[in-house]
Amino acid sequence: MSDRTHDRTHDRADRRRALGSRWLGIGLATLVAVVTLGLGLTGRLNLYISPESIWFACAAAVVTIAGAIWSFALPLGEEGDHGHDHGHAVADSSEHPDAAPSPRRTLALAGTVTGGVVASGVVIAALVLPPASLSVELAMSRVGEQTALFAGADDVTLGVADTSTFGVGDWASVFATATNTAAYDGKTVTLTGFVTPTDADGVNLTRLVITHCVIDAQPATLPVTIDAGEYSTGQWVQVDGTVKADVDGSLHVEPTTVTAIDEPRDPYEY
């Protein structure tokens, strides 16, 4: 192979590596930023993160896109040049152009390619697939986990009497921690959630409560006196009724009306 042909082959390999590095870096980051802004502008970003975090995510996306635009000013491959003297390495490479790559380099390359394919698939799926809530899937996968203490638990333990603004998460804290359950007997509620089964062939009203994003989501469940066969698992309902204290001190919701509804635009509580 002539030196000129070898140089052209080497240049093409360098260009492919530079394109791959740029795609794995700023390319994927830009696509994620575009998806984030699109979801934020259409009001669907709250399917994945809490409303308090949306402004930060959108601001970070704008900064990322600005950085991507600036990166076009850099020649391809320039981002890999850190200003170090690679003369010795270049000399070694030119002296042994056909040397076999070391096992460590081969493994590193395989890991990079695998990670790139997975990351690219995730980003492309985010672009192609419509955003959807993970409420029912997450809740059913975590059936049997210990009930977490949700936002509002501090108010409950302090004995705040106004429960009119309580959601499923707040009431789940009351049901789990209240020592004087009679104090809540007869409280009226209007709650929205989806139907999930219980171990005793009963029905729970369930809602996912998130702090930052769906990764930290915890299911909040309330026992409701509903015929187990009346609604399918995952059906969203609005329950109007009262809280009842049983003789053993446990609490449940006794509905006066149960209305099947579509999944709300914001399926989570915070």
From TrEMBL:
InterPro entries: DUF1980 (IPR015402), DUF1980_C (IPR048447), UPF0703_membrane_permease (IPR052955)
Transmembrane segments: 21-41, 53-74, 107-129
Region (Disordered) residue spans: 83-103
Listed Basic and acidic residues bias regions: 83-98
Coiled-coil regions, chain positions: none
Domain DUF1980: 179-270
Keywords: Membrane, Transmembrane, Transmembrane helix
Signal peptide: none
Pfam families registered for this protein in UniProt: DUF1980_C (PF21537)
Protein name: DUF1980 domain-containing protein
